[in-house]
Amino acid sequence: MRYIDLRSDTVTNPTDEMREAMFKAEVGDDVYGDDPTMKELEEYGAKIVGKEAALFVPSGTFGNQLSLFTHCNRGEEVILGDDCHIVAHEVGASSVIAGVQLRTILSNKGELDPKEVEKRIRRADEDIHFPGTGLICLENAHSNGRVISLENMKEIYDIAKKHNLPVHLDGARLFNAAEYLKVDASEIAKCCDSVMFCLSKGLCAPVGSILAGSKEFIDKARKKRKLMGGGLRQAGFLAAAGLVALKEQVKCLKNDHENAIFMGEELSRIKGIEVRKEDIHISMVFFSIKNTGCSSEKFVDGLLEKGIKINGEENGEIRFVTNYWVTREDVIYVIKCVKELVK
Q1: Average pLDDT, whole number, for the chain?
Q2: Does S-adenosyl-L-methionine count among this protein's keywords (predicted)?
């Protein structure tokens, strides 16, 4: 049975072109620097975001945590939004791996107030009680589905430079943000010193993310990646899929976004469903069914019986995520099934 999977943009299977590229990939031992396909991916990954160098990592969380580990000294403080992925969904790894303290700021749907960021910057030599700020982290596109403006990012980056601090961007969905803003990904990456972006979120690659930054930063990160268990051998098989993701699949994100907008509009026409239409910037649709009389459990189970996979309610909302393998016809079928469940 074919399922329509709306749980996340991470559920995308490799395309036929990717499978062919993986099958034919020329590989070598990447820890020795012998894998030509991996070298090509890392060079292309750095170029596409305008950075000097890049490094393949197994996952987005790995890339974010490696960045904290590389930028910061143990006991330093990282300033970031209270609802960002690093805080909410990375298992407290920053305390275990980098040994840093997270100092959160209340965000406005993912956007940070530059004045609040600057207010929280501390120097270790200022006061015997203070940790020093080691890093500022941003996220774009945000995991709430919104895209942060370049103006906001630039203002925070300028503050960071004023205080001689690095900025790391969790750009797991960087290319979704670039599509929404109608700019090259490198324009967004100008507002940070390091950036992580996923190959497996909406781009159909089976495994992997890229961490990019200066050559000095990546050289340090490469050794720390080894410490974290991320030194891979014949990884060119994965890199081959990553190259197809960056060269071909990025172009398909526009269609995902259009399907999400269409889905949001149609869901909002159903009595009792409240959709955050103003927050549909990328491929995510957040909505509430609390006024329909249908429980979250019944909603999830009912759609599964009709061949549609979704996650349960979180913080009072349900999320549908469009992706490469979800067609406009699929979306129309999903809307029909939702209407039948909540009528």
Answers
A1: 97
A2: no
